[in-house]
Amino acid sequence: MQQYETVENNFLKIRNAMQIELARRFYGFDDSKKIIEWTEKYSKAFGIIVNNDPSLISRYATHREEVMDEIEEMLYVERVTKDMV
Question: Are 47 and 16 spatial neighbours (Cβ–Cβ below 8 Å)?
Fold first, then answer.
């Protein structure tokens, strides 16, 4: 049970770190209010993207820029998630 909780905690930490990084990349600077605004606007869509492709979480450790670019493409360019938000 404890091992499962550790894995789940690590998953959530990585997922949160990814969202913060996406917000910083979106605004080009680190501002806690802007990060909160980004999270309020995109967290649902981000969750759907990550749930549809959990490999993004594991690939983030070794291919950070590539994964961030993929997620940004889905969030902002393809607007795949427009109807999901």
Answer: no
